[in-house]
Amino acid sequence: MSTQADLFESINEPPLPTAALIDETPPSTVREVIERYIQSRLQDKLEKLKPEQADERAKLLESYLADTWLDNASLRVGRLSLATHTPKQNHPKSKASAVYVNYKSASNKIHSLVASSVTELNLDVIGDAAALDIFKMLRLEFKEETLLSRLLRQDKAFKLALAADPEIAAIRFERFLAFAQIPSQLNAGRTAKQLYFPVDATTYHILILLYPSSLVHCAWQQMQTDRFGETQKSLRELRRSHQYAEQEVRDYPNLLIQSYGGTKPQNISQLNSDRGGKMTLLPSLPPVWRGQDFKVPKQDTIFSWYLRNRAAIQSLLDELGKLYRNPNRVNNIDFHLKRDEMLDDLINEIIVTAFELQQNAPSAWTQQQKFDPSEAYWLDIGYRNTLFIKESQGDINEDEQEWLQQYRSRDWHKNVGLRFGNWLNANLKLQTKKSNDLATLDDSEAQVWSNRLRNELNLLSDEEA
């Protein structure tokens, strides 16, 4: 068991050399975890300097001495607020306070029911993005416990690791601990969403809605594992081959992606930045009755009247055409963001149409009418599953084996994307009789459309194909 003297001895050791960054041996003390992190931060910055930047190099070496960095970090950590519920997802300019709920504290154990409080959640932070390097340090682990967890339970080893002098260590520790405290005065801000909840006939509570960031991140991690994890991929392969498996296959159809923070997701929160600003939305829709009579495309492609005549797609084509025909249009970031938003909606509608074909069209319908091969690989799930079964039973001919080989190659994604790009360009040009209105819709624009659908198909294939 380490004594206080042993801890002080490790603290007074000189900074770890750069070679420690590639040392795969586990650290022996909390202090060593911290020093390795500081050295890795220093190394990243030194590699960006040019040989003639000697003054900058000297300043970096001085500022990244362990005690210097820790003292600075203990002052900067006050710019962050520990949180389980964050405000900026509801409004990007929200000034509302974040809330940190310690689910493990005795005061929060109000019932014995299964709820989010029994889930092991990652904690989030909001505040100055320039101080997030401190939180990254606190997320490091020592002996299977994060430094943040040690801080919150006021671990003595973490406290002593902050400085050789116990008094200085105590001061720094209190600064670190302060960022996890709920402010004495909470601010709702002007942009927060409010809910008037009736208490009796004349009294209401005003509730401020916050985003359950920690719980949402837990759900995101589970869905990512279920959708793209190697275990689930293997289970889907077994299901396609009609083979038995003890584990369940988890599917999430009709998902939507919601983005927060644009190009700077770290301005929303740390966990939002970890997800690249994205969160998956599950469908919350009533069932839709569909009749038995289902129509398949009569031409050799889905990119025909079959798509154009759908009300939702026709409406989106009209909106996109109006955007390009606007005489005051400026080819800037605002234009591209609006165009990409409409394009995403259009692609979502096409994916929904494809899903309907996959689920309702009879097996091998694309073979009967000589459908475009690349689109057949995408849409004819019935025929695809039939070939999987025949292949597993060893009863498949050369043409059928070639079909499966082409499907598995994924090369068809590119061709489907190109057909979509040309189809969209042609439809937009048909919306006007003035040839100059859509003069900018050339091959480069078609390539934009093509790449967006192809990327979506690649994501879907990781999950389903």
What is the fold's blueprint, element by element?
Elements (H helix, E strand, L loop, with lengths): L3 H8 L18 H17 L7 H10 L2 H11 L3 E4 L40 E4 L4 H7 L2 E2 L2 E2 H6 L3 H6 L4 H13 L15 E5 L5 E5 L4 H16 L1 H11 L15 E4 L10 H5 L3 E4 L23 H4 L2 H15 L7 H28 L4 H4 L4 H7 L1 H12 L5 H12 L2 H18 L13 H22 L1
Antiparallel strand pairs: 1-2, 3-4, 5-6, 7-8
Helix pairs in contact: 4-8, 9-10, 13-14, 13-19, 16-19, 19-20
Summarize the structure.
This protein is mainly alpha-helical. The protein has 20 helices and eight strands.
Describe this entry's structure for a reader.
This protein is mainly alpha-helical. It is about 50% helix and about 5% strand. Among the domains are: about 140 residues, no CATH class; about 180 residues, no CATH class. A hairpin with a 2-residue loop joins strand 3 and strand 4. The two termini are about 55 Å apart.
> Biggest sheet, in brief?
2 strands, antiparallel
Within the largest sheet, what's the order of strands?
1-2
Shape: globular
- Strand content range: 5-15%
Give helix and strand order, one letter per element, not per position: HHHHEEHEEHHHEEHHEHEHHHHHHHHH
Keywords:
50% helix, two-stranded antiparallel sheet, 20 helices, 465 residues, two-stranded antiparallel ribbon, mainly alpha, disordered N terminus
